[in-house]
Amino acid sequence: KNQVEQSPQSLIILExxxxxxxxxxxxxxxxxxxxxKQDTGRGPVSLTIMTFSENTKSNGRYTATLDADTKQSxxxxxxxxxxxxxxxxxxxxxxxxGNMLTFGGGTRLMVxx
Amino acid sequence: DAGVTQSPTHLIKTRxxxxxxxxxxxxxxxxxxxxxxxxxQGPQFIFQYYxxxxxxxxxxxxxxxARQFPNYSSELNVNALLLGxxxxxxxxxxxGPGGNGYTFGSGTRLTVV
Lengths: 113, 113
Prior knowledge:
The complex is a heterodimer of chains A (113) and B (113).
Chain A lengths: L3 E4 L2 E5 L4 E7 L4 E9 L6 E7 L4 E4 L2 E6 L4 E6 L8 E9 L6 E3 L3 E6 L1
Parallel strand pairs in A: 2-11
Antiparallel strand pairs in A: 1-3, 3-8, 4-5, 4-9, 6-7, 7-8, 9-10, 9-11
Chain B lengths: L4 E3 L2 E4 L5 E6 L6 E7 L6 E7 L2 E5 L6 E5 L5 E5 L8 E8 L8 E2 L3 E5 L1
């Protein structure tokens, strides 16, 4: 069964600090991995997408890494801002014809002043 | 260009009622997927439609149904509502059934009382 596990479930950090969110997956065959940011009550917004051959991708203060051998990904947020407070969801797409998405449960990040 | 639009944004229904949620994909996108997100959890896949045909179905009861129209917009219908159907319902559109271009709408918040 395809699964995506994220850790920690929730995280509180002070404004300006860095943090790293983790994602482990068992989706097979693997197609791509995406990180989304979701504000409360809103739809997810894509931050990064990585295929099998990519091991790092940045989007401003967000940097995602992918280790396809260990089936792990991380999202690093640098110099956090209050607006970074949101849920961060790891989503893995399988390599079958349907390219179905498997979602992690998300990490709820709160940035405090 | 408008993004993925969903309507209504919020609604409240009583147990046993029926509800119809609507989604308009990004212009040029021919695939629409529906997800249910219960508070505090990641989205769960319900349906995917491509070129007006069902391409995938998640583990949801037959009370849930959907369809896609010739203009690629879509409706999600839920019959005999239960309290547990209360959730944020997300629609995502993409060019095709797979690929990298999933874009989510802001969702419809359904509350069943």
